[in-house]
Design goal:
alpha/beta, six-stranded mixed sheet, 687 residues
Length: 687
C-alpha cells in the first residue's frame, strides 16, 4: 500500500483543514477570560460573600464560574498561591453543585446583605454552534470524501483526481527503449512512406521548395500482428520530435464530454511542442461510423469523434502536428475521418511475402544461437500467411523448447515443432487412443493427403501426423510452393475434394463415417457457398453476387448481413452448393478407389512413424495415379474457349529461346515451361 500517495492526495488536505478548524474553535470557546482555580478557593469566596455573579454549568463539565467584587481577591490556596484577576472557574463533583447552588440562593434571599448583586445562573452544558453544524454536515462530508476517493482510484491516484478531462497520452522520452526502421522487416513499402515523414520533419525546406505539404494524418491498417504499432515505435525512434502515444480506448469515458476534452488537451500539448507526432492505436474504438447501429447518434463516442475531426482539419487548425493511427478494421471507420485533409495517406500493412518472412526471421533470430544447418528460407517457405507476430512467436517457441531440452542451439527439429505448436497447438502426449481410433485417424489423414497429391491443381503435401494437437486428432499440412494472391476455379474444386478426402476414406474403408470430419465439412461448405454467392463460379447462376456484405458495425456480422435475393434464388443457391459438395465428394472417392494400395501403404507408415515429412510422403506417393485435368470452363456453353494461348512476356520469350538453343546444342534435354498463379495459404485439414 502506497501511504505517501494518500498524504499527497487532496482528500488528506481537506481532512486536515477540518481538524484545524475544530481545534481553533475549541481554543476560541475556551478562551472566555476565566482562569482556573482550586474548588476550595472558589467555594471560600462564595461563602465570604466576595462574589458579584456566578454561573453553574451541569452536565459532563460540572463547572462553576464566578466574578469577584471590586477590591476583593481569592483566598490563599493550600499551596500558598493566589491567582490574580477577577474571573475564575473550578470543577465540582457529584452533589457538590447542589450545595454551591443552595449557598448562592441563600445569599440572594438575604436582601439585607449586599452579596451576589448580579445573581447567578444554572444552565446545562450546551454544544457549540460549530459542533452542531459540523455534526449535521458530517454525512454530506463523508459522501463527498468517498466520491473523491473513488475518483482518485479510477484516475490512478495522486494529482489526477481532478484531471480526468486531461489527456492520458504518454510522451516518449530519451530513456524510452529506441526502435528504428532497422528493426522493421517485411513491410518495405510502409517503411518507405513513413521514412518520408521523418525526412519532412528533419528537412522541411526540401519539400516546401516544390510546394509539397506535410500529410496531416497517416492511417496504418492491416491484419493483427503485421507490425503497425512497431512501425509507429520506429517513427518515434527516428523522427527526433516529440512523440505522443495514446490508445483509442483512453478517449472513451463514462462521463459525457470527457473524451472530447481529452482530445482538445492532447492536441494543445502537441501544438505547444510542434512539430510533433501523435500516435493513436486502435483508433476504431473512437472513430467508428457515426449513426450506425441502435440507440441514436448523440453519445459520448460520437462527440469525441467530432472533436477529433475538428482538431485534424477544422476552422481553426495550426500545422505542425502529424497524426498516425492504426486499426485492424478500416471498413468501420467514419468516412469524414478517412477523407484527404485528415488522413491524407493510408498505408496497408499486409502479411509478408516469402522474402519479407525471411527478413523478419533474420531480425528475430538475433540473440538466439541457431545451429549451422538451419535454413531460415526453408522456414519462411513453410510459413505462408504468417504475420510478423506469428514468426516472432515461432522463434520464441523454438528457443523455449531448446532450453526445455537442455540444448545449446536451436535446430531444425525444434523449429519444426515450434511451427506445429503455433499452427495447431501443443501436442497432447497424455491422450491415449485405442488402436482402432489410431487406424481411423490414419485413414482419415491419409485420405486428405492422397486426394491432395492426386489432384492436378492442389498444393503439395508437406506433412502428415496422427499425433493429437489442440482439438484435432491429427492433421495434414498442404503448403504452396510460392506465395499466392488469387485462386482459380479448378484450384478451389481441388480444395473441396481435398477437404472431403478424409470423410471419403472413412466411408470407403470402414463403411461408417465418424465425427472427425466436422471441421472439414464446415470449411468445404463455406468454400462452396463462396464459389456460388461471391465468385460466380457456377453456370446455372452465373457471375452474380448474392447477399450484401455491408454489415452494421454495431449489429455484428450475422445480424448486419442482408439477403437481396428471393426464396427461389436461395433454393437454387443451396442446390448449387450441394452439387459442388457432391461432385467433390465423388472425386475424392474415385481417387481413393483408384489408389487404394497407396492409401494402405501410407496408413502402415503412419501407424509406424506417426509423423511423415515431405520426403517420406513423396516416397510413398511415387506410384500414385494423378487425376486428369478438367475440361475448359467459361461459365456458359455459348462462350467457346479460345484455342489461342496467352501472349508470352519478354521474360518468357527469353526463357523459351534459351531453352531452344540449349536443345539444339544438346538434344537430350527435357525442358518444361510452366506458368503458375500464386496460391492462397491453406489451413491444415483437421482430423
Amino acid at each position: 500500500m502506497d501511504v505517501k500517495r494518500y498524504f499527497r492526495a487532496p482528500i488528506m488536505w481537506i481532512v486536515l483543514a477540518v481538524l484545524a478548524v475544530i481545534v481553533l474553535m475549541q481554543v476560541v470557546s475556551d478562551s472566555s477570560g476565566y482562569k482556573t482555580a482550586e474548588t476550595g478557593q472558589v467555594v471560600a469566596a462564595i461563602n465570604a460573600g466576595d462574589v458579584k455573579s456566578a454561573q453553574i454549568t451541569t452536565g459532563d463539565s460540572n463547572t462553576v464560574k464566578i466574578q469577584l467584587k471590586d477590591g476583593t481577591s481569592l483566598p490563599t490556596s493550600g499551596t500558598g498561591k493566589t491567582p490574580s484577576g477577577s474571573k475564575f472557574q473550578a470543577s465540582y463533583i457529584g452533589d457538590q453543585g447542589k450545595d454551591i447552588a443552595a449557598r448562592l440562593q441563600t445569599q440572594i434571599d438575604d436582601k439585607d446583605s449586599n452579596t451576589l448583586p448580579q445573581g447567578y445562573t444554572i444552565s446545562p452544558e450546551k454544544q457549540s454552534t460549530f459542533v452542531s453544524l459540523l455534526l449535521s454536515m458530517l454525512p454530506i462530508v463523508i459522501i463527498v470524501l468517498v466520491f473523491l476517493f473513488l475518483m482518485n482510484q479510477m484516475q490512478g491516484g495522486g494529482s489526477r483526481v481532478m484531471q480526468f478531462g486531461k489527456s492520458k497520452a504518454k510522451l516518449l522520452t530519451k530513456d524510452t527503449p529506441k526502435t528504428t526502421f532497422a528493426d522493421v522487416a517485411g513491410a518495405d513499402e510502409a517503411v518507405e512512406e513513413l521514412h518520408e515523414i521523418k525526412e519532412f520533419l528533419q528537412e522541411p525546406a526540401k519539400f516546401q521548395a516544390v510546394g509539397a505539404k506535410i500529410p496531416k494524418g497517416v492511417l496504418l491498417y492491416g491484419p493483427p500482428g503485421t507490425g503497425k504499432t512497431l512501425l509507429a515505435r520506429a517513427v518515434a525512434g527516428e523522427a527526433g520530435v516529440p512523440f505522443y502515444s495514446i490508445s483509442g480506448s483512453d478517449f472513451v469515458e463514462m462521463f459525457v464530454g470527457v473524451g472530447a476534452s481529452r482530445v482538445r488537451d492532447l492536441f494543445e500539448q502537441a501544438k505547444a511542442n510542434a512539430p510533433a507526432i501523435v500516435f493513436v492505436d486502435e483508433i476504431d474504438a473512437v472513430g467508428r461510423h457515426r449513426g450506425a447501429g441502435l440507440g441514436g447518434g448523440h453519445d459520448e463516442r460520437e462527440q469525441t469523434l467530432n472533436q477529433l475531426l475538428v482538431e485534424m482539419d477544422g476552422f481553426d487548425v495550426k500545422g505542425g502536428v502529424i497524426l498516425i493511427a492504426a486499426t485492424n478494421r478500416p471498413d468501420i471507420l467514419d468516412p469524414a475521418l478517412l477523407r484527404p485533409g485528415r488522413f491524407d495517406r493510408q498505408i496497408a500493412v499486409e502479411r509478408p511475402d516469402l522474402q519479407g518472412r525471411l527478413d523478419i526471421l533474420k531480425v528475430h533470430q538475433k540473440g538466439k544461437p541457431v545451429a549451422p544447418d538451419v535454413d531460415l528460407r526453408a522456414v519462411a517457405k513453410r510459413t505462408p500467411g504468417f504475420t510478423g507476430a506469428d514468426l516472432a512467436n515461432v522463434l520464441n517457441e523454438a528457443a523455449l523448447l531448446t532450453a526445455r531440452s537442455d540444448k545449446k542451439l536451436v535446430d531444425n527439429f525444434t523449429l519444426d515443432e515450434a511451427i506445429d505448436r503455433v499452427v495447431a497447438g501443443p501436442q497432447k502426449r497424455t491422450r491415449i487412443m485405442s488402436e482402432k481410433e489410431k487406424k481411423i485417424t490414419a485413414y482419415h489423414e491419409g485420405g486428405h493427403a492422397l486426394v491432395a497429391a492426386a489432384s492436378p491443381n492442389a498444393d503439395p503435401v508437406h506433412k502428415i501426423t496422427i499425433l493429437s494437437r489442440g482439438r484435432a486428432l491429427g492433421y495434414t499440412m498442404v503448403l504452396p510452393e510460392e506465395d499466392k494472391y488469387s485462386t482459380t476455379r479448378n484450384e478451389m474444386l481441388d480444395q473441396l475434394a481435398y477437404m472431403l478426402g478424409g470423410r471419403a476414406a472413412e466411408e470407403l474403408v470402414f463403411h461408417d463415417p465418424t465425427t472427425g470430419a466436422s471441421n472439414d465439412i464446415e470449411k468445404a461448405t463455406a468454400t462452396a457457398r463462396a464459389m456460388v454467392t461471391q465468385y460466380g463460379m457456377t453456370e446455372r447462376l452465373g457471375a452474380i453476387k448474392f447477399g450484401s456484405s455491408e454489415s452494421e458495425p454495431f449489429l455484428g456480422r450475422e445480424m448486419g448481413h442482408q439477403r437481396d435475393y428471393s426464396e427461389e434464388v436461395a433454393g437454387l443457391v443451396d442446390e448449387e452448393v450441394k452439387k459442388l459438395i457432391e461432385n467433390a465428394h465423388n472425386e475424392a472417392w474415385e481417387i481413393l478407389v483408384e489408389n487404394r494400395d497407396v492409401l494402405d501403404n501410407l496408413v502402415l507408415e503412419l501407424l509406424e512413424k506417426e509423423t511423415l515429412n515431405k520426403e517420406q510422403i513423396a516416397e510413398v506417393f511415387a506410384t500414385i495415379v494423378k487425376r486428369p485435368a478438367r475440361p475448359a470452363w467459361t461459365g456458359s456453353s455459348r462462350r467457346t474457349p479460345s484455342t489461342r494461348p496467352p501472349v508470352q512476356s519478354p521474360k518468357e520469350l527469353a526463357l523459351t529461346n534459351g531453352a531452344a538453343a540449349l536443345t539444339e546444342a544438346s538434344p537430350v534435354v527435357d525442358t518444361v515451361s510452366t506458368v503458375k498463379l500464386p496460391p492462397v495459404p491453406e489451413a491444415p485439414a483437421e482430423g
